[in-house]
Design a protein that fits this description.
Layout (H helix, E strand, L loop, with lengths): L5 H10 L1 H6 L11 H16 L10 E3 L2 H21 L4 H23 E5 L3 E6 L3 E6 L5 E4 L4 E5 L2 E5 L7 H11 L16 H19 L1 H6 L1 H9 L10
């Protein structure tokens, strides 16, 4: 598959079942909850202001502080004002406390939650209290999710939230790993007779997404585009 033409992208994306899995959406019964609404606002805002990588293999550290701290602070102040000056009772008291709890949660995530990726791993942390990482060389399976996918290294899982952040380096490293070894793909185990076909679909899907994110870079760097094309080819053998 040669990259570099939008028509080829459209055809490849429509034919790849992996693309459908990657973008699969499901209805969340809590969509109308306050938390869902605030998280939805923060997601749209984060996507609008996200900074793209300067080149596909650039290590990144991501934060939602620019969105979550203002949103959390404003709604925390609103909730406190209701509690202090509104004299709420019954249901209104519960709503005010719920708003305060959600707002403080968003504020805490804005201050302490970080996500990142480098050549060796993808990671997430919450201040000094929580840290989790998955090494690309140790990935055991990839699974689809709601506007994200999940990478597993044995029992450890890290979400890759591609709607909020530019995870170009993750795509590069997944393509490189799929050139060397087998790991589980959505609905397909490494021993499945369908694995080779699924892996090729995922190579094309990931490469398409990466090219669209980094089109300007690849169009001005022919050698990098050639390397990206090489990562969509089926390898002759695997190490496992």
């Amino acid at each position: 598959m040669e990259l570099g033409h939008e028509a080829a992208f459209a055809a490849g994306a429509d034919s790849a079942s992996a693309q459908r899995a990657l973008r699969k959406m499901s209805e969340d019964p809590s969509d109308e909850s306050l938390l869902s609404k605030l998280v939805g606002i923060s997601t749209l805002g984060q996507r609008a202001i996200r900074k793209m990588s300067d080149w596909p293999e650039q290590p990144r550290v991501f934060s939602q502080s620019k969105i979550l701290i203002p949103v959390g602070a404003i709604f925390s102040i609103l909730a406190l004002a209701i509690l202090i000056f509104g004299d709420p009772t019954g249901r209104s008291l519960f709503d005010a406390l719920a708003l305060l709890l959600v707002s403080l949660t968003l504020l805490a995530h804005g201050i302490w939650r970080r996500f990142g990726v480098d050549k060796d791993k993808v990671w997430t942390k919450f201040g000094p209290w929580f840290y989790r990482e998955v090494h690309f060389s140790g990935i055991t399976r990839l699974e689809g999710g709601i506007q994200r996918f999940k990478l597993y290294e044995s029992g450890t899982m890290v979400n890759v939230d591609y709607q909020r952040f530019d995870y170009s380096l993750v795509y590069v490293r997944l393509l490189e790993e799929l050139q060397k070894r087998r790991f589980g793909l959505p609905g397909v185990g490494v021993d499945s007779p369908d694995w080779d076909m699924a892996a090729q679909q995922w190579r094309q899907t990931i490469a398409l997404r990466l090219y669209k994110l980094q089109k300007k870079y690849y169009d001005s760097h022919p050698q990098s585009l050639e390397y990206l094309n090489s990562l969509t080819e089926t390898p002759a053998s695997y190490i496992n």
